[in-house]
Structure formats: C-alpha cells, structure tokens
User: What shape does this take?
Amino acid sequence: MGTNDKDGFPADGEGPVREITLDPFYIDANTVTNLQFSKFINAAGYETEAERYGWSFVFYGLLSEENKKADFQVAAQTPWWCAIQGAKWNQPEGKNSDINDRIDHPVVHVSWNDAMAYCSWANKRLPTEAEWEYAARGGLVQKKFPWGDELLQDNTHHCNIWQGTFPDYNSLDDGYLGTAPAKSFQPNNFSLYNMAGNVWEWCSDWFSNDFQKTGSRINPVGPSAGEAKVMRGGSFLCHHTYCNRYRVAARSSNTNDSSTSNIGFRCVKNA
Assistant: This one.
C-alpha cells in the first residue's frame, strides 16, 4: 500500500510504501448508481444533505446556459466550483436538470453522511482506505494505475479524467465531459470498474497525512477522529496539471457533510 513516488504528493501522506494485511471482503463492482440510490430514497424516505441545505457545488462547465446566468457564489480558490441552488442527486446541475439519461451513472451530490445512510439501508458499509486501495490495485503490485504504469495503453483510454487544458478546454478524448456510466472502460483484474477517475469515492476513514506511518498494519481503519473523511480515485475533473490524484496511491479528503458533482461511493461487505 502507498507509494514513495516523489512525482506524487508526499505531503498528502501517500507514503511510505507498507505491507498491509486485510481480512477478506466483498466490494461492489461499480459505484452506486442513480437507479440504486433512487430505490433507497423511495424506500427509506431519505433526504440528502444537499436537499436539506438547498444547494450543492457544481462544476461550472456542466451548467446550462440558463443556470450560468443565475446568481450564485463560487469557491474562492477554485472559481469553477459554483454553489448552485437546487443542485442535488437527481438534479445534478440544479434547476431544469435531471438524471433521465444518467440512470446508470454514479450518483453524485452525496455527502459522506448520505453514503453512510445508504450503506446502513443496504446492509453494507463504506470501504476502509486500505480496502479501497487493495481493490483498486487489482492484484498489481506498486503500479501507478489499476491497469499498469502508463496512462494510455495501446493508445486507449482506461478512465474518465480531464483531457485538454483545465479548466477551460476539455477535448473529450475519453468520451465524457461529466460522469460516465458506472460500468465504463475495462475493469481491473478484480473485475472492478472505474477505480480511477469518474467520481471520487468516499472511504470510512478520517483523513490524516501521517497516521499511515505509525498506524496498525492489520486491517487499518485510520485515526479515531479528524476533520475530514478520505476520498479516493480522482474524478472526471482530474488532470495532470490540476489534482493528478487518479493514481492508485493518491488521496484526498472532504468534510463529511460536503457534496459536489464529482463525489460518489461504492460499498463493501464483510466476507
């Protein structure tokens, strides 16, 4: 687990490389889809945090021309993130948007708390960070991506990330501007889809950039407390000049009540 690659982000706590022992577990082949999440909403009568807050963060490039004219605030350091009123899991870009043609895409605008509620309903749980990385590697040892060390193999794209110049121009070389269907591209050697790119995936652990140096090597679960939860895998907005966290060992985090148009999750279950 981890990497000592200096081309990554050592300050994120990607290293050191370490041997981890895990108990067996089952993991979903793909992230939870809009269809699956809608069944949960209908059965449980659940209201997501984005719905309760009345807004969520949407990438500017996904907004309709009408919604671009709306009055909204942007994140100070990342102005392409727009706080859009009415944005939620089934209205991903706010008013007049829907998921009718994205029913097989990952559900987004779900917070860590929302993901936990779904897991409880489905009798599953979120993966630990160690479980997620083990699954993402697909049996490959210390490779940069779930398929090997080269981003393109045989001139073929293996994940949904930003192509072109971020954030102004996306050439769509991989076929997608926003999310791709949850079962897109070739799966890894464990038959898991989109372990790199598409949407960030929540893990159960609190984020720390130094816990992995001293924490348990057997079924690690992260520190006992923190300010943000671990996210893994990168998203359709990742680019080598911005983010560059679609590598297997890369890490990020967000507060457990945050939601955006590029965060989703998949579930696991004890074997």
